[in-house]
Write a structure and sequence with these properties.
The structure is a homodimer of 345-residue chains. Chain A is an alpha/beta fold and 345 residues long. Chain A contains ten helices and 16 strands. The complex binds NADP nicotinamide-adenine-dinucleotide phosphate (2 copies).
Chain lengths: 345, 345
């Protein structure tokens, strides 16, 4: 028997979730020698990811949305990198590294059909890159940046790209890909340190949206208007961007984190400009663009290895800190991709 | 000397324009035998069009938008069909029928370079179709329906199309093209007579948005959700449609007439659904899609001649009624494409 810490979804929050109330850390024991069902695997979690979309899963199961609600009083799940330590499934071998959607516990027995949500990725062992990279720049958030900017942003050299939440898991990669494509890249973030980091990354301009007038800052930093907006935050930022958008601008709606923890969504008053400026506002979910997976992995792995792009991570030690880690992301207290380190490879 | 009635833009309205205040009818005289400048033409107006976008031109000239502001105290202009009665320009011959943007007067001298806004269209004389058709179903509004639905709606057989202002100049054609493409077509309009007309046209369902709960009506008449929304009105209708839109729905923003005469635009609160349902919201201006002109004219002329599509017009006699005619359109008092008949061919 070994100790096994799990993260439980305990209660549906109405605004910001609270650690210990909506998410509860539970310690139990697991017998690693016990039989596991036919088709199941037993994995040891190495790193796990906390991402803003998880807030959307913390809802009443009767409300439909693009990703399923977390069942109450059960282990939460999300993107993980884990190692197989027992297998009763011919697709997995002991020692394999897996990536995908898995349970948030130190040790997890995954039965069929949920094993299909995990893919063997032994390249993670051999790449020489940190495991955590595969939850950020080379994982779901990185793919989101790549798909959103390239497929939906339809960038044209010389255009102005504006990115909100620009120092985050998705945003920092969006800006760097934009710069590679010859765009003028402008970003905003919620602290002066984050803004400094954006400038280090090569953003042409960056500002702290909490300490300036957004309308004025957009006018100043995007003197030729905005051609592509990579939307991560929503609310008044979206409205301001619509005001500053050029004719035929693309507003790629990746997320609207400012609206995730409120019951009173912020209004948008200037939708008429969608007509008068022929704007395109397009929402997307990264998992609907699997055709770009291969190009994404190839390109971003290369850029990382050559040092052409940088990627900041914000790693917290210990699975028991998962609830606070997720709350930090929702409150903007993360600086870079937030990852929970659970165990070494 | 003959009498020449003109329509003058007299004052910038803040809400609904008022005839005699913001638009003034002026009688003057014109010498049809007088010399006209090199490059100019003198035309006699046959029919003129009043269209919602003209409200946007009734603004202070310092405000930029996609179509230029009307200059104060000058003749208004818009789509006309007219006949050349004098020409000092090699591109035009006396007797030619012209179509395009021209002055709102019985007789108009158009100097260069404005003659470029008029095209010789002697096919109008020979087609056997009423002149007024060329300001509606075969003119700018018809082209708007064709481009908006086909190019931006990206229709797929079996999908549900919802059209607002569906009995109007644009809407009635949108619905009929949709039906031809195998869509389930649902429309709304502002009176029971208009709704009856939509059913006559072959709409699968139609409702009077003024007498029902919009959310409930959309649920009832679009039981499989909305895949394409042809947006003519904006405001709370847009918000309701976003609630009822299917994943990957296209919201084609043609106009938002409910917002043209107010200084307090209606808010949209549910933009987060653009992300969660991967919606595409796309504004367009018809004049940006000239590549579709030929196909539009060919298809719609054929459908009209074979009787496959019907098109209702609302014709008012006499240029002096132009201000009221435009106001009627803005207030929903028109029933079908509003045209002002000025003189016979
Ligand atoms: N569509 C998809 O498939 C998909 C996939 C992944 C992520 N996303 C979305 O992409 C966005 C970024 O995700 P991420 O993983 O890269 O997270 P992240 O940027 O690493 O972390 C979230 C950041 O959002 C900012 N933020 C939080 N509350 C805010 C508020 N009220 N107003 C403005 N900014 C606020 C904070 O940065 P500041 O300090 O700069 O405010 C915070 O650090 C989120 O909206 C997420 O839902 C979408
Ligand atoms: N993007 C482009 O290039 C382009 C080109 C042409 C037209 N348009 C737009 O297309 C739309 C329709 O134009 P149209 O020429 O076909 O006009 P129309 O439908 O013939 O006439 C306007 C109609 O709008 C409806 N309406 C008026 N006020 C309203 C309100 N407050 N709420 C809801 N509906 C209202 C009325 O019908 P009900 O009785 O049914 O309410 C009215 O009859 C307009 O928004 C126009 O600006 C855009």
């Amino acid at each position: 028997m070994v100790s096994n810490t799990q993260v439980i979804f305990a209660k549906v929050p109405t605004t910001f979730p609270v650690a210990g109330e909506h998410m509860v850390v539970k310690k139990s024991e697991i017998d690693l020698d016990a039989e596991i069902p036919q088709g199941a695997i037993l994995t040891k979690t190495l790193d796990l990811s906390v991402d803003p979309y998880m807030r959307g899963r913390m809802r009443d199961a009767s409300v439909e949305s693009y990703s399923p609600a977390f069942p109450l009083n059960q282990t939460m799940s999300g993107y993980v990198v884990a190692q197989v330590i027992k297998s009763n499934n011919s697709k997995f071998t002991v020692g394999d590294i897996v990536y995908g959607l898995g349970g948030y516990a130190e040790y997890v027995v995954t039965p069929e059909p949920y094993t299909a949500l995990l893919t063997v990725r032994n390249d993670i062992k051999d790449s020489g890159l940190p495991v955590s990279n595969y939850l950020g720049v080379l994982g779901m958030p990185g793919m989101t940046a790549y798909v959103g900017l390239i497929k939906f942003g339809k960038p044209v050299k010389g255009e102005t790209l504006y990115v909100s939440a620009a120092s985050g898991a998705v945003g920092q990669l969006v800006g760097q890909i934009g710069a590679r494509l010859g765009l003028r890249v402008v970003g905003s973030a919620g602290s002066d340190e984050k803004v400094d980091y954006l400038k280090e990354l090569g953003f042409d301009a960056a500002f702290n949206y909490k300490t300036v007038d957004i309308q004025q800052a957009l006018g100043e930093h995007c003197p030729n208007g905005i051609d592509i907006y990579f939307e991560n935050v929503g609310g008044k930022m979206l409205q301001a961007v619509i005001d500053h958008a050029n004719k035929f601008a693309r507003i790629v709606c990746c997320g609207m984190i400012s609206q995730y923890n409120t019951q009173n969504p912020e209004p948008i008053y200037n939708m008429m400009k969608v007509v008068s400026k022929s704007l395109e506002i397009r929402g997307f979910i990264v998992s609907d663009s699997p055709e770009m997976n291969e190009a994404f992995r190839r390109d971003v792995t290369e850029w990382l290895k050559t040092g052409e792009i940088k990627y900041r991570e914000d790693i917290v030690e210990g699975i028991e800190n998962t609830p606070e880690a997720l709350i930090d992301v929702l409150r903007g207290k993360n600086f870079g991709k937030k990852v929970v380190h659970v165990a070494d490879l």
